[in-house]
Amino acid sequence: GKENVDSRHNRGRGGETTRFHTVSVAQPVRFSRKCPTGWHHYEGTASCYRVYLNGENYWDAVQTCQRVNGSLATFTADQELRFILAQEWDLEEKTFVRKDQRRFWVGYQYVITNRNHSLEGHWEVAYKGSSEVFLPPDPIFGTAMFENENVLCAQLQCFHFPTLRHHGLHSWYAENCYEKSSFLCKRSQTCVDIKDNIVDEGYYFTPKGNDPCLSCTCHNGEPEMCVAALCERPQGCQQYRKDPKECCKFTCLDP
């Protein structure tokens, strides 16, 4: 509402004075992205993605993703994969591959069915999820394979150079699951409050934005059924500043 409220008097029935307070109409709210800090949001799948740089074997990477309510990433469409390849993941020197080539564990495994003349097999989704997940093409086989291993784990290789990255150039590797590598986690979009806390389904929260007096319900990662509080201006203070993250909290700027 307006900070300066107009008070108007009107003569009602019986001669009594009726007070009207005019307030501005609420404006539509544009909410910010629905991912925690450090995650990349993709609207097409309503999902969040994050690369973890600490080198872990496949099974440890799986557990790390699960601890943040996610899983190793799988892809439902070519557009989603292109989104992943186009991102700059803020990678550092401690990655475990060449600087111009990045490899990440992702959520597929290659099951070997025949070792006679060449390695024959097929891809599977490591942890069953959406039935719409697509499977990678034939892989490049890694250098650290063991002869008695019949299950290999998927690494997605993308490229650091912008021209290669934006053309979607990439490769799929089937690698020994106990090799250490960076990895890509994927989780559903979520509600994130104004202080960057993750909000569980069904709970009230104040979404990120410019209105700390907004209260919404978290539903499928979206703020819904929002209501806003209106604050009176601080008494006895001519100049003041609103706190951007606390509702109805002001700092008086008077001398």
From TrEMBL:
What positions does the domain C-type lectin occupy? 44-186
Protein's name in the database: IDD protein
Q: Corresponding gene?
A: Dgcr2
Q: So which domain of life are we looking at?
A: Eukaryota
By its UniProt entry, which Pfam families does this protein fall under? Lectin_C
The terms describing its cellular component in GO are: membrane
Which organism is this protein's natural source? Chloroceryle aenea (American pygmy kingfisher)
